[in-house]
Amino acid sequence: CFCQAWSATGGTLKSRTATIELAYLDKIFEWEPLKTDSIINKSAELRCRPPGGNPYPKVTWLKDNQPVEINRNGRLILSNENSLLIAQIKKSDAGNYTCVASNIAGSYSSEPAELIVHDDRGWSEWQAFSECKGIPCSIGRQRRLRMCLNPPTITNKPSCDGDQVQERECSVPCQKSLSSQPTGSNCLCKRLHS
């Protein structure tokens, strides 16, 4: 379409052609944030993919129904994919987070997702080393384990820094003699007469 204006003196002006597009915003989010566990001084990611819309919706976040102040160089960052990234988690970051998608057609909010913040409990004590395994009278291996006491990450990986398994070399003992006699051989022979 275009606009045309004219005056009483007979002059006319015509605008450039314009296209009219219908603005809309779908109701269903492509990806809503999920309940997340994190640990003090670690990071967390709350994912959100807004519903389809024209124009593409802008995403903002609420924490406990209050706007989250996004700081590009700070602890709270909005990723290019609209995820809320929280660095150096604090106890005060715990709460219910809501993703809000809006454009000129309207606004929709996701279901709230709880962020639970735990103290960093780290690792358990190491278990005792296993028995030395290998070929007798040679160098073998022993191992021991410890458990991460923090809750697992969203990908179900331990959320502790460091190794869960420790291995070391050891000397595999030689097999013990089955009798208490000194080693060696002893033969008794009888002469047979023909």
From TrEMBL:
<dbReference type="InterPro" id="IPR000884">
    <property type="entry name" value="TSP1_rpt"/>
</dbReference>
<dbReference type="InterPro" id="IPR013783">
    <property type="entry name" value="Ig-like_fold"/>
</dbReference>
<dbReference type="InterPro" id="IPR003598">
    <property type="entry name" value="Ig_sub2"/>
</dbReference>
<keyword id="KW-0393">Immunoglobulin domain</keyword>
<dbReference type="Pfam" id="PF07679">
    <property type="entry name" value="I-set"/>
</dbReference>
<keyword id="KW-1015">Disulfide bond</keyword>
<dbReference type="GO" id="GO:0007411">
    <property type="term" value="P:axon guidance"/>
</dbReference>
<dbReference type="InterPro" id="IPR003599">
    <property type="entry name" value="Ig_sub"/>
</dbReference>
<dbReference type="GO" id="GO:0070593">
    <property type="term" value="P:dendrite self-avoidance"/>
</dbReference>
<keyword id="KW-0677">Repeat</keyword>
<dbReference type="GO" id="GO:0007156">
    <property type="term" value="P:homophilic cell adhesion via plasma membrane adhesion molecules"/>
</dbReference>
<dbReference type="InterPro" id="IPR036179">
    <property type="entry name" value="Ig-like_dom_sf"/>
</dbReference>
<protein>
    <recommendedName>
        <fullName>Ig-like domain-containing protein</fullName>
    </recommendedName>
</protein>
<dbReference type="InterPro" id="IPR036383">
    <property type="entry name" value="TSP1_rpt_sf"/>
</dbReference>
<feature type="domain" description="Ig-like">
    <location>
        <begin position="41"/>
        <end position="116"/>
    </location>
</feature>
<dbReference type="InterPro" id="IPR007110">
    <property type="entry name" value="Ig-like_dom"/>
</dbReference>
<dbReference type="GO" id="GO:0098632">
    <property type="term" value="F:cell-cell adhesion mediator activity"/>
</dbReference>
<dbReference type="GO" id="GO:0005886">
    <property type="term" value="C:plasma membrane"/>
</dbReference>
<dbReference type="GO" id="GO:0030424">
    <property type="term" value="C:axon"/>
</dbReference>
<dbReference type="InterPro" id="IPR013098">
    <property type="entry name" value="Ig_I-set"/>
</dbReference>
